[in-house]
Target: histidine kinase
Amino acid sequence: MSKILVIDDDGVTRLLLKRNLQMQGYDVTLAKNGAEGLRLAEELRPDLIVCDWMMPLVDGVEVCRRIKAHPILATTFFILLTVRGQVDDRIQGLDSGADEFLSKPIETDELLARVRAGLRLRQLTQQLSQANQQLSALVEVQQQLLSAVDSAQEDANSSYIQLLAPLGQAAQASRAYMSELYQDQAGIEPLVLCEWFAKDRPGKPKPQPSQEAEGLIPPNPLPSRWVETFHKGGIVGGRVRDFPEAEREILEQAHLESVLMLPLTLKDELVGFIGFENCAIADLDSLLPILRAAAAAICLHRDRSAALLALRASEARYRAIIEDQTEFICRFAPDGTVTFVNDAYCRYFTMTREELMDGSVVPFRPDFDRDFVNQPVINREESAVLPNGEVRWHHWTERAVFSGDELVEFQAVGRDITERKQAEEETLKALAKEKELNQLKTHFVSMVSHEFRTPLTTILSSADLLEYYQEDFPDSKGDKKLQAIQRIQSVSVNMTQMIDDVLLIGHAESGNLQCNRNPLDLVQFCQQLVEDMQFIDNGLHGIELILSQSSLSACMDEKLLRHILTNLLSNALKYSPEGMPIQLELCDRQNLAVFHVKDRGIGIPSQDLPRLFEPFQRCRNVGKISGTGMGLAIVKKCVEIHGGEISVQSEVSNGERPGGTTLTVILPRFPMNNLTPSLNGQVLEICRGKRAED
Model:
């Protein structure tokens, strides 16, 4: 039944209007002035107001203006009664918000027609306003869910509280809440996640739940009928008086007049429901589609949030694994642009992600020239120069990543293998050294079997002769006995020297050969050495000593220097024809002692020069000239221990003209901390000068 408020200071008009309207079935209330009409309008909230214009104190225009300014009464249809028919009057009435005008005296049929039209218009306006409110609520719900799509679980519950407000307002409810369901021994129990309370309900006081009713809504556990209805996708709703008795008692204890509950289902599984208390059940047909759509949006959001949380957890685990790797990982776009580097990569190359991403410095580049289809994965080793200038070796596993047939990116995983490469290099050196030692062993065995056999045979045969013919040798034959003894002594000395040479090389190879420097006059040393060598030579060749000065002081190891010069002079004498003298020259060049040993012998073939100073190596043109191949190896070791250098220049004789060899040894006269390790440049310069002089 529509409610109509009549405001008029004329009692006859009021009664006439009341009778005519009541006869049409309307609920009519009368007010005799404007102030009383405003008070009754706020209390009754009528659907339509008929008000006289001309009234004392508060006239009809002022009443209309206040009614239209009221937030709740603004939609009330307002008919203004007037005897004023001027255009200006009607404009004033329209400006105040009047919806219709009736002129006095009032025609009953026109009045009723205007009232029916006004009530229809108000009903349409209310329906449209309600529909707009419901649609606005649904839009706001969806916006809230979209803004909370990447929230954590706690934040998501907070966002649900915000979306409950427009839903509760659209349902004209006193309270709205969202509950989650879980199975317990007592049955299905609800857990309220969030709730909203209306500040005020139109026409009814704000609900004040009693202390004893607290916690009853939703009931715990839920009635089985509700759970079955939810599982079927139905709703639980209606006026409380229409519920079964057991359920009605629970709801009445909470002072509820109506309830509405909609299920929340994720992947065909019931997970909870949304509830509304004291809602507009009369508008359920228009309200339910909006609430169902909102419930579906909430379910979709919860499903997406759960998936997003799982994805983020998976991504966090993946990122943690990537970032915790000691290997450096990088990715590139097909055009070579860096798209990702992990922390290990940045730490290793001491660069930030920003520096690496801008492409100005990229320590590693994929192999863009290979056949990616047939070789999607390759392994390669390469060296790189770090920002601090250090050269390091890396092993890279490079993979081309495809999406279908399209190349989408490259991924490379690298690790530092510098220590391994160094170990491999050391191993190769050790293997080479072992191979060299094996070769030395082979040469040594061959040399021993060859060089020791002849002197041992001489010793044995001479000893046998002495023993066998001891009584037959008269005193006059003492010279033959002496000759046999001298032969034994000579070959014994040679064998002793050979053993000493082997021991010397062994000490040098093991690093036990030391350089014990002592003051020494090189001129006197060379003069004495030449005298000793000439005695051994027995005048077959002759040794020429060339000195640039009468005295030259030095601090050297005399024993090692004797090994150097003795072996060089012995070789010069051995490989030179009889009657062809050799030379030993000593000079001083910038605090360096320079020795030249020159002969006019058979010379050294160029093919033998690279291995000339290796132990047991002999030149291919020595023929039957005896030797062990250890002399120059000993010279080389002694020179290196002194911190010097040795070089050789040689020309092989060809029968028509003699050859010759010059060996140049450069030794520091005094130990110097800043002495350059290599003297090759000075050796070459000195040798060139020597050749020019010759």
